[in-house]
C-alpha cells in the first residue's frame, strides 16, 4: 500500500529535489502540500511549489498557502543560497492556485481525511505545523508519523555556529513542535551526509521520469 504523505515545504532548490523524488517514488502518494516562508518569501515558495507540480504534470496535488512570517521574529530568507526568488533555473508558470484554506486548516483537514494512514513531513520552518498542533492538540496521535527536517543535535549549525536554518527561522514554532508533536527529527547530523544515490538516478532513467532527472541534475549543477 502506498504511504499517504503530506509535505510542508519552503520550496527552494532542496525542496524542489524533495518534491521530485517524492512524486517519483512508487510507494508514496503525495496527497497534499503546504507552503511556508523560509528559503524565500511565502509568495515565492508557493509559486515555486505550484511550478514544480506543473512541471511534473501533477497539478492534481492540492497546495495550501501557509505562514508568511515566523511567530515572533522577522523573516530572513536564504536566497543567498537558493538564488533570487528562492530557486534556480527556469520553471513553467503554474496554471493552478492554492486551495481556499490556510495551511493550518488544510493540514487539520488532511488529518481528518486520512487519519492514521497519514505521514506529515515538514522540511521548512515549523510555523504551519505548530499552528496545526495548537488548533488540533491530538494531531500527533491522530496520524501515523510526523517527520521534520531541522535542528543540529550532534553537529554545528549551518546559519550560526550552533543553529540549523529551519529551527533558527522560527525557534518558537520549533519549540512547540518538539515539545507537543513527538516528531522524528532529521537534523544536520543526517542531512549533511545525505545525497541522491546513483541507484536512484539510474531508476529514473526512463522516459516518464526524464523531466525529474533533468531537474535534479540542473539544481545540483547550479547549486555547486
From TrEMBL:
Q: Which domain of life is it from?
A: Archaea
Write out the entry's keywords from A to Z: Glycosidase, Hydrolase
Q: Taking every annotated instance into account, which residue ranges of this chain make up the domain Inosine/uridine-preferring nucleoside hydrolase?
A: 5-207
Q: Respond yes or no to whether keyword Hydrolase is given for this record.
A: yes
InterPro entries according to UniProt: Inosine/uridine_hydrolase_dom (IPR001910), IUNH (IPR023186), Ribo_hydro-like (IPR036452)
Keyword Ribosomal protein (UniProt):
no
> Which Pfam families does this UniProt record tie to the protein?
IU_nuc_hydro
Any one GO molecular-function label of the UniProt entry: hydrolase activity, hydrolyzing N-glycosyl compounds
Which PANTHER family does its entry note? INOSINE-URIDINE PREFERRING NUCLEOSIDE HYDROLASE, URIDINE NUCLEOSIDASE
Any idea what this protein is called? Answer: Nucleoside hydrolase
Q: What is the taxonomic lineage of the source species?
A: Archaea, Methanobacteriati, Methanobacteriota, Stenosarchaea group, Halobacteria
Amino acid at each position: 500500500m502506498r504511504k499517504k504523505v503530506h509535505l510542508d515545504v519552503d520550496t527552494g532548490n532542496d525542496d524542489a529535489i524533495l518534491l521530485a523524488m517524492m512524486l517519483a517514488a512508487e510507494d508514496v502518494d503525495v496527497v497534499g502540500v503546504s507552503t511556508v516562508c523560509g528559503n524565500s518569501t511565502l509568495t515565492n515558495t508557493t509559486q515555486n511549489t505550484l511550478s514544480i507540480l506543473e512541471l511534473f504534470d501533477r497539478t492534481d496535488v492540492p497546495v495550501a498557502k501557509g505562514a508568511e512570517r515566523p511567530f515572533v521574529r522577522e523573516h530572513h530568507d536564504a536566497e543567498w543560497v537558493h538564488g533570487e526568488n528562492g530557486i534556480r533555473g527556469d520553471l513553467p508558470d503554474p496554471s493552478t492556485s492554492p486551495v481556499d484554506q490556510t495551511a493550518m486548516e488544510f493540514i487539520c483537514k488532511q488529518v481528518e481525511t486520512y487519519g492514521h494512514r497519514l505521514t506529515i513531513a515538514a522540511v521548512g520552518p515549523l510555523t504551519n505545523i505548530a499552528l496545526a498542533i495548537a488548533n488540533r492538540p491530538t494531531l500527533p496521535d491522530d496520524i501515523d508519523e510526523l517527520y521534520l527536517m531541522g535542528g543540529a543535535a550532534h553537529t554545528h549549525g549551518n546559519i550560526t555556529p550552533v543553529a540549523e536554518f529551519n529551527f533558527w527561522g522560527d525557534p518558537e514554532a520549533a519549540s512547540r513542535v518538539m515539545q507537543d508533536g513527538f516528531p522524528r527529527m532529521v537534523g544536520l547530523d543526517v542531512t549533511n551526509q545525505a545525497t541522491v544515490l546513483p541507484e536512484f538516478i539510474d531508476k529514473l532513467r526512463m522516459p516518464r521520469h526524464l523531466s525529474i532527472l533533468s531537474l535534479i541534475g540542473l539544481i545540483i549543477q547550479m547549486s555547486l
